[in-house]
User: What shape does this take?
Amino acid sequence: MQWHELTIHTTEEAQEMISAMLHDAGAGGVSIEESGTLNKDRDTRYGELYDEPLNDIPEGEAVIKGYFSEESPMDGICTELAPRIEELREFGIDPGKAEISWKTVDEEDWAHAWKQYFKPLKVSERLTIKPVWEEYTPESPDEKIIMLDPGMAFGTGTHPTTALCLRALEKAIKGGEEVIDVGTGSGILAVGAMLLGARSVLALDLDPVAVHSAMENVSLNGLSDVITVKESDLLSLLGGEGAADTPAGAMWPSARPSQRPAESGAADEAAGADASVPGSPAAGSDSAQGGLGVTLPVRIVVANILAEILVLFTDDVYRALQPGGIYITSGIYKDKEALVRKALLASGFEIREVTREEDWVAFTAGKR
Assistant: This one.
């Protein structure tokens, strides 16, 4: 089978929005390659070595490729995308050159070739991500292995935002917590949370491709009995106006090579603090336990999605959390840090920690 490969030369800053545009235009897959310059600050605390540039893409730039079925009207798609990309400038996002071109390629050229670059990756003190096609021997008995086949859903752990969320989860989870993962993508954060000691996880996504991928990865890790995957958003879960208005494909910061990262403990101490959440099933009810796999309100919510979407549901996250609960969020480019901080504070959160990698930011916030 052949596909049309549409290539856009742009900036790292604009990559998420342009990726969403490609999905909206009908792309069956998206790949993103950022600059591999050695000038970038990279996290090497877990042994990664960067001694030569990874590619010749200029610093701050990115090459995004969307893959369209053979019958797609490519000239029309290019004509439609060009003004939408230029419109990003009006929102303070620089798309750079935004050069668009396309060619026809064989499916094998893009659907599987990227796998040679996805190797086992140690992302935190205890978590290592292992693609299913790679062999890997744990370095210590404490090392937890996330087995992953991301398919066409975001989250391989190689993107800074996924790694930032996993490290924040490692700090936050003490054992026995119930967790909601909003915009789960490949399910990597849900799986990571369980391996770190969570009691159960509800993984939500609006994209049916991501839901399918997450369910497969949950099964791959033997966690189908403790991770519930649903095609939904948080507002639909809680019940309220505007539920599911966010289009699928508009949520995830995309940077992988193929696309579109129990015991009792602190959670038990706060489990009885709220009897229910407005608009949700009563805590402990059959519908909450049986249908969702977690009981609202929960101890931890994690969301690795675009900053522009994050700010729309901070109030909903606040409702979904127990008093003292933790909200971990990333997908935030550096120029959106102030925007997300303002939204978190306005919803009543206190900022407990801000972490950064390359040009990306993660917040750990607490419900007062």
